[in-house]
Structure formats: structure tokens, C-alpha cells
Amino acid sequence: DIRHLDTIVQSYRYNNLNLEAFNSKDAFVASLVAGQGSGRAERAVVRDYPNLHHFAADVRHHEDGRTTVIILEPASAGNQENLPGYTELASALRYNLGSQCRMVVIEAEAQKSLSDCVTFALDFALVAYQERRTTFDQWHENLAAYGTIADNGVQDKKYGPFDRGLYHNYGIHLIKGWGVLPPVFYKHAHSRETLKGVEKRQPGSLETDVSTGSNKDGAESLEERMEAFSDRHGFRPRNISIEASRARKIRHALES
């Protein structure tokens, strides 16, 4: 996945998608500095170098010079493997952009495997683009104005920060994705327990249409997707939808 990431990313040329892959957090931060004040919306798949883990980012460069960054972590941002990458990123943003940049980290906890982060991150970046008008554009406006993605800056526990220590010590505003991300982000979630958590916090999510791309004409609910791609072999059933997503993205690159 890592070897072919650039090729796959370059195959997506939607209007104003501005999707790019970065092999390190430093390269990503440098791009944020270069884009200040441009008024551009950008999406990124970023490697937590030297680790192999990847995450997605949805970015807005506001014309007044502010930059807002919404990190989309496929798995967990707070675990011992991924957390150092986010503390380093937060530090680099403070050093290079100061108060002109605001960042939140939304951990989706959709990925339960060790090796699917590239495909999840790419999928998240594309879904963020798809959901820009309904969700992300407003989140960025809120983040720039209030320092939170909540409308009008209202205090609501679902918008975090979920870890006060991370927030006060490292400036990491952590949000749990189950309560805020559109259900389509969980189209490829590995675990049925994850979908139960999303449904509990966002009732009706399991019935939400999550068909995208070339499949948009045929409605498919989140629950139907899980059923269609459940692999019941082995000790623990798992959802292999992400494998289908990987195959489609490779095919998209080959046909472009």
C-alpha cells in the first residue's frame, strides 16, 4: 500500500480535492506553512515517519492567514504507538504556525488491524471531501472561530477534548469519532461492536445509506454493508469491506 500510495492518490482528480500524500509529518507541516492565506481546501494522507502508520487530514487555509486542520485517525490516536506522532505534530504546528493554526484529532476507531491504515486513511480523505458541504466546511469555520468544531462553540462533551491531560500538556484536542463522524466513515469498520457504538451515539446510523462513488445509484445501509462483507471464518468474524475498497482504489489508479 505504501509503495503505490502516490500513484493511487494522483489518480483522484476531483474538482478542488487537492489530495496529496506525505511521507512524513515534517513534509506535511511544510505544506501547511506554504499554503497559509491561500484560501485552499486540501486533503492529505500522512505517514507518521519513521513509523509505518498513516492518518488522514482535512485542511482549510483561510484567507485571513489562519489554518485549520482536522486529523482523521482510522484507529486510536491515544494508544502508545500512535500518540507520540500526534504530540510531535502538535509541537511542530505550534513552532511553525503558532496561534494561526488550530487542530483537532478525531479518532474513528474503525480500524482494528495492524496493516490497513493506508487504505483507511485514503478512504477517510475522500469521504471528508464528499462530506465537505454537509459537515467539514462548517467544522472548519467553527474551528477557526471558536477553537472547536461545535456549532457556535457550544460546550458539548461529544466534541471533547476527551483527554484533558493531552489537551493541557500537548495541545491535542481529541474527539471520539463515534459521536460526530458521518456514518459513511464506518462503511469499512472492522468490528460490529464499533457499529453498535456509533448507533448508540448517533441513532439511525445503521440505516444510513453509505453507498459512494460508482455504487451511488444502489442504496446500501451501514448494516447491510457489514452483513455483505462479514467473513465468518476463523475464531472471530470480521468485516472485509476494506479489502474491497483497496481493490477498487487500485483499479481506479490502473484505469486513470
From TrEMBL:
Keywords: Acyltransferase, Transferase. It catalyses: L-threonyl-[protein] + acetyl-CoA = O-acetyl-L-threonyl-[protein] + CoA; L-seryl-[protein] + acetyl-CoA = O-acetyl-L-seryl-[protein] + CoA. It comes from the Bacteria. Residues 196-230 are annotated as: Disordered. It holds the Pfam family Acetyltransf_14. Residues 217-230 have a biased composition (Basic and acidic residues). GO terms for molecular function: acyltransferase activity. Belongs to the acetyltransferase YopJ family. This is PopP1 protein. It comes from Ralstonia solanacearum. The gene is popP1.
